[in-house]
Amino acid sequence: MSRTIIITGGAGFIGSHVVRLFVTKYPEYTIINLDALTYAGNLENLRDIENAPNYIFEKVNILDTAELERVFKQYNPDGVIHLAAESHVDRSILSPLDFVYTNVIGTVNLLNAAKQQWSTTLNPSTPNNSTLNRFYHVSTDEVYGALGETGFFTEETKYDPHSPYSASKASSDHFVRAYHDTFDLPVVITNCSNNYGPYHFPEKLIPLFINNIITKKPLPVYGDGQYTRDWLFVKDHAVAIDLVFHKGKNGDTYNIGGFNEWKNIDLVKLLCKLMDEKLGNAAGTSEALITYVKDRPGHDRRYAIDASKINKELGWKPSVTFEEGLAQTIDWYLENTEWLKHVTSGEYQQYYGEQYANRG
Ligand code: NAD
Ligand code: TYD
Hints:
Blueprint: E1 4-8, H1 13-25, E2 30-35, E3 55-59, H2 65-75, E4 79-82, H3 89-94, H4 96-117, E5 134-140, H5 164-183, E6 187-192, E7 194-196, H6 205-214, E8 219-222, E9 228-233, H7 234-247, E10 253-256, E11 261-263, H8 264-279, E12 290-293, H9 308-314, H10 322-335, H11 337-343, H12 347-357
Parallel strand pairs: 1-2, 1-4, 2-3, 4-5, 5-6, 6-10, 7-9, 8-12
Antiparallel strand pairs: 9-11
The structure holds nicotinamide-adenine-dinucleotide and thymidine-5'-diphosphate.
């Protein structure tokens, strides 16, 4: 069956993996990558598929409602997979409003565009169970807040966001559900744990530390380093998105996670060891770069996902171990130092300098 799908944020980290998967796996689909190309968006992430006949790029900001209307009219999509967002917690602390604009207002703009386009099929009094049209919102486990030493986030966990980033994602999740309940918009939401892998912008923990080890800069570990995250290889996330987009239940939420919890300091030490091996350094060379710095305000202690629903209902589970995924990721960064140089030039470089100078 031929379909036309708008993927927002397709030039970013996760979005580029989702675009690549859909363009290559579904040659009968038309995939429109709609992205504003902010500091985090980079068309170099899609060089290998940019000439595919079923791929179209539209440089559009989701805050531009006229442009959204134009794109929806022009392509008449039957699906939207929404990944465009401001995604970095530290930036959200420095500039919360940017997150409200893109993550909240931008999402509502997209919901409005889809509602308008699909208006003839929507009927709140006789809810629509068809998967003909689908608005898929990609969200985060951070909306659930922080866990103590034990327990997991399930789809029923109460929302309790702490950072401006997670508050903006929680808000957008609520709007997506509200459009389902009020206007019968066919939606699905996934809340995923921390991703890692190729094309990850080097401001997040793993790619920042790989880049700093390559360039022999300090590795800034926030607070006591005992914070826990549940890491998932990005390609496994893209596979889950494909499954949920095609087979997820209308109006439902699915949690996605790696069953792979790591305390930051343990992960950083593993990364240092693997990097020393790959770079031929003496043991301990990279660990010597670890520098404990002032903690992130509002820092969530632990995230861990219970991904049993998506496992039981759709048969998804991660395909690579952390050791395999991390080794693949390190190899990719070592083979793509030009990419690293490009994305860390200009605006990002300036931002990083300011942010780092303010830590003590
Ligand atoms: P990213 O920062 O790497 O990419 C975001 C993309 O969105 C970029 O290409 C950027 O140009 C685009 N964008 C930003 N503002 C835009 C705007 N106003 N209009 C159009 N495009 C815009 O983000 P990511 O890490 O790939 O995350 C993608 C999505 O997945 C986000 O919604 C994020 O909340 C969610 N998520 C991320 C993780 C993670 O670990 N990275 C985990 C769970 C969920
Ligand atoms: P990050 O990659 O920013 O993802 P998130 O905050 O969305 O989980 O951070 C992952 C963890 O690593 C988090 O506990 C904060 C910590 N961290 C550091 O200790 N130092 C750093 O330089 C960064 C970017 C993160």
